[in-house]
Amino acid sequence: MLNKLIIAAAFASTVIAAPVLAGGTHAGGDNKQMAVGKPGKADAVDRTIEITMLETEDGDMLFEPSRIEVKQGRTIRFAIENDGVLEHEFVIGTPKANQKHKGEMAMSADMKHVDPNAIRLDEGEDGDLVWTFTRTGKFEFACLIPGHYEMGMHGPLIVAAK
């Protein structure tokens, strides 16, 4: 684990040393419809899914569970806990959008999400994200902090028809 954490730290320090092309916070739409759905309302939650973010003994970074399946039209409360020793985030989106955003984050070491489909937590923190899944398809949840996706922090999010 120590070797992989050292690699991740080295990768992050390389990114920090890179020129900053964009900075500050990354703010998305408030209640706009996205490909994966829209922000949900706490009083409309149909189901709670507990998510743990962590690093393993051998240095992998992961989410538990590693796969999420929900039904279209459902409002899900993601109860997210960072049990790792590093800061992590939970972002839901399309694989294409996540890859694009991962590249943007690699170019800006100080970028923080203020998007309704993302939450960033320091070690030991927990938080909630409430989301309504309006469309079916194969989506993804991921940590887009530089180096974390490559260390295994991503998984499929399947939205099935009602």
Written overview of the protein:
With 162 residues, this protein is an alpha/beta fold. Helix content is 18%, strand content 38%. The chain contains two helices and twelve strands. Strands 2-10-6-3-4 form a five-stranded mixed sheet, with no helix packed on it. Strand 3 (47-55) and strand 4 form a beta hairpin. The longest helix is centred in the first third of the chain and has 16 residues, at 2-17. The radius of gyration is 15 Å and the shape is globular. 33% of the residues are buried. Residues 5-31 have low confidence and may be disordered.
Segments where pLDDT lies below 50 for 5+ residues?
5-31
Number of strands: 12
Enumerate the strands of the largest sheet in spatial order, edge to edge or round the barrel: 2-10-6-3-4
Separation, N- and C-terminal Cα atoms: 41 Å
Radius of gyration: 15 Å
Following the backbone from N to C, one meets helices and strands in this order, namely: HEEEEEEEHEEEEE
- Helix and strand content put the structural class at alpha/beta
How much helix, percentage-wise, in residues? 10-25%
**Shape category:** globular
Name the beta content range: 35-45%
Number of contiguous helices: 2
Mean pLDDT: 83
Largest sheet: 5 strands, mixed
